[in-house]
Amino acid sequence: MNINVGDIVARASYKFDLLFRVIDIYHNEKGEKIVLLYGEDVRLMADAPYGDLRKMDNIEVQERKKVEDMRLSRSLYLFQQDYELIREKSEYEVTGGYQTDNEYFQVPGKVLHIDGDPLYLQKCLDLYSKFQVPVQGVHCHEKEMHLKIGELIDKHRPDIIVITGHDAYSKSKGKVSDIKAYRHSRHFVQTVKEARKKVPHLDQLVIFAGACQSHFESLIRAGANFASSPSRVNIHALDPVYIVARICFTPFMDRVNVWDVLRNTLTGEKGLGGIETRGLLRTGMPYRKHEEDF
Predict the structure, then answer these.
(1) Cα 47 to chain center, whole Å?
(2) InterPro entries of this UniProt entry (predicted)?
(3) Domains: count for the chain
(4) Is 215 helix (H, G, I), strand (E, B) or coil?
């Protein structure tokens, strides 16, 4: 069976555990045919021998998609529960314990989402829209992010930045502690450092950085509030959105409990971690509807 760029495949050597998109097909220095892969649901980048791959038929892809959609629906439901609790708390405080009928409005944090994968970027933007999070999305190759982050901050003035794409740890390139053994972790670290040159304070600019198997410790040291991947596991493509949305809808007078953020993600604490961070939601009043609104 011929495999072409754009096909959905799985690796026999890994018992067909994950679905991948074929990004490129090339020959290595030994003349072997190698395929560059991007995870279909996880932010993993991998090289695989051509002969190790099996092209997945549409029926199997759809069956796996149903399972994945169920996981997403559960996370969305749990997030909506959390959001409702936050909304009720804000309403109680603004109305003086429901003693008045003051109408109010809320202003969540603004997000700048920089992604190395245009397809994942669109998936994330769709989820931000469901959460009603104000966001600007930018597609940028991981190696170029540190060169562009400064001008993007100046242009969009975000409250939160997501720096993500694809990554992977390669045991053949070094120890787990060696950042050179990772595909893009050092590029994410450079980007975080450049962002912190613009806004050093951790609560004035909240940063999520990383992808699958990323060097978590280096990203946190560089200045990220949240990052992947503490146990060097794969993270889901949409995990950054859940973290960011929770911060956006936590009142700015409250601190975001790290566990509260992680527990409703698709990956959990093995793939994601962070430090205590202030929320970004601001509540204002009064809210007035004008005649032209009707």
Answers:
(1) 22
(2) Peptidase_U57 (IPR008764)
(3) 2
(4) coil
The residue type found at 216 is: F
CA 74 to the chain's CA centroid: 17
- Same domain (yes/no): 15, 48: yes
In whole angstroms, give the CA distance from residue 155 to residue 238. Answer: 25
Task: Tell me how long the chain is.
Answer: 294
Tokens of 286: 């009064």
Let me know the angle formed at the C-alpha of 214 by 10 and 240, rounded to the nearest 5 degrees. 85
**DSSP, residue by residue, 59-103:** HHHHHHHHHHHHHHHHHHHHHHHHHHHHHHHHHHHHTTTTTS---
What CATH code is carried by the domain that includes residue 214? 3.40.50.2300
Give the containing element (helix H, strand E) for 156: helix 145-156
Indicate if the pLDDT at residue 279 is higher than 80: yes
The values of phi and psi at residue 177, to 5°, are -80, -10
Which backbone phi and psi does 192 adopt, to 5 degrees? -60, -45
- Please list, in sequence order, all residues whose beta carbon lies within 8 angstroms of the beta carbon of residue 66, skipping any fewer than 6 positions away: none
Structure confidence by residue, pLDDT tens digits, 146-172:
999 999 999 999 999 999 999 999 999
pLDDT in tens, 4-57: 999 999 999 999 988 999 999 999 888 899 999 998 888 888 899 999 999 998
Q: Is 207 helix (H, G, I), strand (E, B) or coil?
A: strand
How confident is residue 176, by pLDDT bands cut at 50, 70 and 90?
very high
Query: ∠ CA(208), CA(249), CA(255), 5° rounding?
Result: 70
Which tokens is 152 given?
């993007």
Q: Is the pLDDT of residue 246 over 70?
A: yes
Residues 260, 219: one domain? yes
- Is residue 224 domain-resident? yes
Predicted TM-score (pTM) of this structure? 0.85
CB 237 within 8 A of CB 41: yes
**Residue 86 binned pLDDT confidence (cut-offs 50, 70, 90):** confident
